[in-house]
Each structure stands twice: as C-alpha cells, then as structure tokens.
Task: inverse folding
C-alpha cells in the first residue's frame, strides 16, 4: 500500500496512520470493521477543508469498510427553511459530494448506532465524534480511540488502524471510581452527571457506581457530556456496561470521588440564563424515535409560540414520519430537521441569540458560541415553547 500499488489515495492514507502509530508507539496496524467520520460541517471545515476533501476524492480511493458520516451544517433538503445562507449551502453540498466519492455513506448523524451502524463487542473500529466514541466504547464494548476526521477517512480507505491506547486491554481499566449519590430520573440528570464527572476525571476512565437503570437516551447524553466537559472516551457503569464486571477487581487501586445531588443542581445553575425568545433545540445527541415520540405527544393538537427545533437522523425521521410524530410537531409549528444539529449549523449567520437545550453538551457549545443558554428537561422546554 505504501509503495503506491493500490493508488496514491491509499498510500497517503496509510502514511498518515503509520505516522500516527509511530508517535504513539503502536506495535502494529490492525484491521478495523468500520469507520465513523466527523468534520463534516462546512462551518468547521472552511474552504481549506473542502479543498482537501475534494483533493482526496480525486485521488480515487474508496472506503473498503463500512463508513458513515457525522452531522453536516444543514438539513440537505430543507436548508432554506432553516435560513442557512446560499453560499454556505453550496459549499456544504460539495463537502457531501466529496465524501460520497470516497465511498462514505452520507448518514449525517452522530448516533449511527441508532440507524444500523452498530459495531460488535470487542471489534476494532475507527470512530470520530466524541459522543459516538463514548457510546461505542462503553455501551457496545467496541474499541476505538478518539479519532479525528482525517484518521477515520484513512482507516475507512485502508481498513486499518494503529494499535494503541483504548484498543488495548490495559488502557481500558478504570482510573477513578465515581460513587453517585444523586437522584437520576430524567436524561438531563445523566447529562448533568456527565458534565460534573468530566470535570472531575478529565480523560481518565471513570467507573460509575449507583447509575440506576438508565435508558438508552440517558446513556447517550451521559457519554456526550462526559466527552465534552472532560475528554472521556470510555466509561464503565456497574450493572450497566459490558466490561464493568471484568474491570471491577482493579477498583482497589483507584481513587474514589463522589457526585452528590447538590453537584448536579450547581451544574444546572451554570446554564440557567433568563431567555426571552430562545430557539428550543432538542436532539444533542440526535434524538431517538422514543424522544421524537415524546415531543410529538406534547405538541399534538397544540400551537407553539416560540421556535422549537428537533434534530435527528434520516433513519429515525423516516420512522417518526410513518408514525405521525413529525406531523404532530410540525402542525403545531415546530420543525424536525435531519443531517445537522445546533452546534454544527451556522447559528450566528442564521441570526440566533438565545437557545434552550436539554443537553449539557449542547449547552457548553452554545455558551462558548456566545449565545444565552438555558438547560431544562425536554418536557419542560417543550411546554415552555408551547406557552
Ligand atoms: Fe451530535 Fe451535534 Fe450534539 S453532532 S452530540 S447533536 S453537538
């Protein structure tokens, strides 16, 4: 491959992976079963990123393992309705074309595991998107490092990745025991727990005790917040995640920290801005069918006074449409968008100033973008938007 026998695109991709492996002292390259690629929004890529992708596509290489794509900066069909500028849309469509030329499926979601891209336990994969990395490592027990856009593309094209860090048993052991002494009911409580714990553990692997029985929605939002506030790529939960039992004996060697009810309340207060006319955004990470269904039942037959935007994947949207959920939300005046989210869309150009979100990952990003930000449960926020 390096000698160019499989083409320049493959050679360049492998050069990148070999260099990465050398930096991290990897002993060898191993096959990956799939890739999930981030760095899709033109907002983050800019012209330099777009040109780089188009150049890669011109080299003629194609993904040899299944590869899916993270959200882009707009709904590919309804970007005008979103008020996305024409120039942005033009560039974004070119980005997607380049990815398609590379053989990467334009799924444009951060929850590929909800739409059929579900890695098996113990398999090596190359995933980017911090929330999806946390989910695949922790809940599914697959193995990935915190990959970047270029390394996931290179792994998709070569089918390989260097063997280091979270791909090895010894690096999947817990580094801190997190004793949870707080009531966890709504997914937002788990999101707050992720935010607080991420600040306590940084990139260390946490082992949670006292998580209760989290729903899928709670698990995805917990990981998203952990990954954003700390940089966690893998976590264990007693009685919850598949590797917890195996790594439990190592808890003897690690420090214990406790998260209490007051810690979660303090976190909520950090994102409690007074907002007069926010856009309420539900779907960070992208909504599951269950979440869209809950929002639909709150909206059915009502009228929304403020903006309510729901973000999900195309796969979930299709099912939600079939069940009538999309109609209930949109008839009330809300919107259900696919392919994008509030973080990767060009919000400033779209004129946004205030948001209300049901996710600590979303809240951190929007506050960093200078928007007035308020967190609340999906139910609370939808009810406020209906007032
Ligand atoms: Fe997904 Fe966008 Fe949140 S990519 S995790 S919805 S920031």
Result:
């Amino acid at each position: 491959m390096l000698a160019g026998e499989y083409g320049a695109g493959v050679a360049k991709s492998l050069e990148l992976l070999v260099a990465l492996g050398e930096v991290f002292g990897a002993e060898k390259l191993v096959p990956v079963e799939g890739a999930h690629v981030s760095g899709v929004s033109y907002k983050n890529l800019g012209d330099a990123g777009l040109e780089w992708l188009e150049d890669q596509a011109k080299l003629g290489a194609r993904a040899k393992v299944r590869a899916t794509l993270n959200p882009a900066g707009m709904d590919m069909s309804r970007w005008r309705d979103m008020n996305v500028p024409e120039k942005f849309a033009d560039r974004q469509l070119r980005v997607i074309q380049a990815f398609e030329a590379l053989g990467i499926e334009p799924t444009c979601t951060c929850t590929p595991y909800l739409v059929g891209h579900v890695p098996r336990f113990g398999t090596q994969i190359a995933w980017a998107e911090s929330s999806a990395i946390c989910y695949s490592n922790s809940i599914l027990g697959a193995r990935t490092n915190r990959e970047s856009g270029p390394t996931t593309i290179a792994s998709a094209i070569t089918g390989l990745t260097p063997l280091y860090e979270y791909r090895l048993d010894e690096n999947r052991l817990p580094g801190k025991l997190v004793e949870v002494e707080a009531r966890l009911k709504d997914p937002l409580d788990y999101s707050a727990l992720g935010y607080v714990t991420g600040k306590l553990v940084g990139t260390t692997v946490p082992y949670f005790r006292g998580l209760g029985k989290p729903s899928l929605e709670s698990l995805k939002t917990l990981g998203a917040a952990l990954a954003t506030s700390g940089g966690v790529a893998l976590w264990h939960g007693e009685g919850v995640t598949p590797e917890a039992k195996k790594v439990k004996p190592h808890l003897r060697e690690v420090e214990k920290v406790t998260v209490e009810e007051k810690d979660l309340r303090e976190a909520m207060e950090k994102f409690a801005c007074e907002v007069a006319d926010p856009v309420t955004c539900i779907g960070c990470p992208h909504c599951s069918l269950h979440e869209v269904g809950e929002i639909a039942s709150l909206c059915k037959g009502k009228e929304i006074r403020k903006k309510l935007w729901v973000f999900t994947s195309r796969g979930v949207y299709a099912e939600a449409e079939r069940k009538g959920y999309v109609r209930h939300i949109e008839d009330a005046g809300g919107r259900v968008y696919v392919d994008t989210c509030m973080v990767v869309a060009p919000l400033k150009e779209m004129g946004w100033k205030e948001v209300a979100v049901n996710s600590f990952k979303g809240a951190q990003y929007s506050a960093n973008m200078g928007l007035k930000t308020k967190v609340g449960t999906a139910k609370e926020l939808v009810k406020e938007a209906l007032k």
Notes: The chain has 14 helices and 14 strands.
